[in-house]
Design brief:
The chain is of the alpha/beta class and 174 residues long.
Length: 174
């Protein structure tokens, strides 16, 4: 049976991994799943190199979401180093700086935007790619503000060099 593609899935919550793995397999994907975050870069990078896979890499560690742009840069540099060590082409990596909701961490939004700007310089060749989940920034805010916050955040990220964004389909103005 031909598959739609291959997905490498990692989350430290076994229930989430199990549910997503079942759903993706049911939809015709070949899935490699991991729920142990220890040494994940050494586990997943060789597979990414073998299958020439795109990678969405979260700029975080087991300690959690980074506090500022500097921690995001250190984490991104670690990811890039491991990718190079395992022969993964840097143009296959999308760095996600991870943004916290604006309602609880206003300063984090600007740190995230600046991290995207700084990601551009991590590769001697072409700028590094980046991606962000737009809904993270407006979680917990009134619904009537979601589109406005999301589109403003997207505009600021795009001007910083953002490559891609995950957005809800109803934000067709983006």
């Amino acid at each position: 049976m031909k598959t739609k593609g291959k997905v490498f899935l990692l989350d430290d919550d076994e229930l989430i991994v199990s549910m997503l793995e079942r759903a993706l397999k049911g939809d015709g994907y070949e899935v490699r799943a991991e729920s142990d975050p220890e040494g994940v870069l050494d586990k997943m990078m060789p597979l990414a190199a073998k299958y020439d896979a795109d990678i969405i890499a979260l700029a975080m560690t087991l300690a959690g979401i980074p506090r500022d742009r500097d921690e995001r840069m250190v984490n991104a540099a670690t990811i890039i180093g491991k990718a190079m060590e395992h022969g993964v082409a840097l143009d296959r990596i999308y760095l996600d700086p991870l943004v916290l909701p604006i309602g609880v961490a206003q300063a984090d939004v600007m740190e995230c935007i600046e991290a995207v700007r700084l990601f551009q310089d991590l590769n001697d060749g072409a700028p590094m790619k980046s991606v962000v989940g737009l809904s993270n920034v407006y979680n917990g805010t009134p619904k009537h503000l979601h589109a406005r916050i999301g589109s403003t955040f997207f505009t600021l990220l795009a001007s910083a060099g953002l490559t891609a964004a995950a957005s809800k389909p109803r934000f067709n103005r983006l």
